Amino acid sequence: MTMDFRWFAHYEPGVAHSVAVPDTTVHQLLVDSTVRFPDHTAVRMVLRYLPLGLKVQATLSYTELNRLSDRFAAALVKLGVSKGSRVSLMLPNIPQLVIAYFGVLKAGAIVVNTNPTYPAHELAPLLRSAGAETIVTLSGLYDRVLEIQPTTAIKTIILTDIPETIGRLFRNTVAKQVRASGMMKAVTPRAGTYFMQDLLATVPATAPSVPVDPASDTAVFQFTGGTSGLPKAAELTHRNLVANIAQINAWVPSLKPGGEKFLLALPAFHVYGMTVGMLTCLNLGGELVLAPDPRHTLHLLEIIAREKITVYPGVPAMYIAIINHPKVADFDLHSIRVCLSGGASLPAEVAQKFEAVTGGKLVEGYGMSETSPLTAGNPVFGQTKTGSVGMPFPSTELAIIALEPDEHGETQFLDVEQAGELVVRGPQVMKGYYNNPAETRIAIDAAGWLHTGDIATMDADGYFFIVDRKKDLIIASGYNIVPREVEEILFMHPKVLEAAVVGVPDAKRGETVKAFVVLKEGQSATAEDIRDFCKERLAPYKVPSLVEFRTELPKSQVGKTLRRILVEEEKRKVALH
Asked: Which of 3, 355, 525, 537 could form a disulfide with 529 if both were Cys (CB 3.0 to 4.6 A apart)?
């Protein structure tokens, strides 16, 4: 197939058609920024604003962040971590996460991004499949790690807590509050358990010298939901991530080195928060302002106004929460210049209202864990199209292919306005799924095209529109949810005979989880009974928001539950309203 690259005609002035990907590692980007901006603030976390301009906060300059990550790398090597070792980072957005992230990479190891809200039964298979032998987490999650440790390869546990980086004046107050939340506990360490602050205090600030090939060596395991529901780790190389950072910089050439303030409310264990928030900011020498709780909208408004945030990547639910907050008018949000939305469809009215409130630009983009993540976006200061995920990024190809090969078994590339599967090719596409060659061959074909599983069209200008999904994945507030995972929990309920789970439209989350439940004969239950059962066994974002009881579920002739029928019914309900 010959690409015509029609989208180039609609690129903003100053946006290059391609990027030169630096032959460097992810951690070298931090080292380079430290050389350029040694005294600039690299990381700031503000937990509370007080009268007289006081802040309960933690800050690290580039020099401090670089030195602490050197120390952590040296500590990891001393504990037996070597090149290619997998280290799970199960932390919220706190400074220690950033220190640990770069420390793991400097040790030549692989970051295993891990969601700290996962219950034990979801955490265990993830860590088993990754082969992680080391985990860094909060003391409040220590019991959970100990619970799953016998079924995993975990040998070393490193504990840290939010108050450790807070200034002495407020450290005790913060510690009391964190203990009350359950995220900090008094711990009697077992053999193989260490405290991060002790490790950082007892090793030299000299990073180990570990040779890394950016093109072939993996930097991150990013777990992604598949149709089977089993954990799959997308292997993102150093080159994949460095390429995506270069592409983002090229797409927004107005970003100012040393002059931006990014609000990272997206969790950094999510590929979107990691690359678009943390790595892009630190590569620029910007100030990364961490928000541990993205649901605390009033605090986010305070942060934007008081810290003069300029860049705020997020998901539609975050922007919806801001524009609908009753106190939004009390804050001056006009420092914001650039916001990129992903993870779910961005309603046009949300973008319009957000831009009216902030004066900044909010545009929709497209990506996935397997692509580091960004592959496309609407021009930030150019022409956007309602409902479109935009155009391919520099050095990225997107195409639409028929869902089935032709009579000769060849891939059929489709023309303008024809719906088919969206495929992508570029330097940000993953190396493959770790230890899973069969799934890798399904995902990436011989020509290097990654099959996204999304059904899309392209218009005459080269803008792409997602119209449906081949997969049954539910995407709620940017998180991938596999229906089968939720269904398996529902089937564990003693009163449930059958269950089916689908994603339904939701004004705040993009989609939300709805469960259709058939109870056993003679049994009764309420929606709250079902939800409470799920809350004990699922991460919060996977718990069904809606529960509908039915006497039967739609089935195929062979008895397979037809989720698509349920989805169609829900879409008709929305259309009627």
From this structure: 525
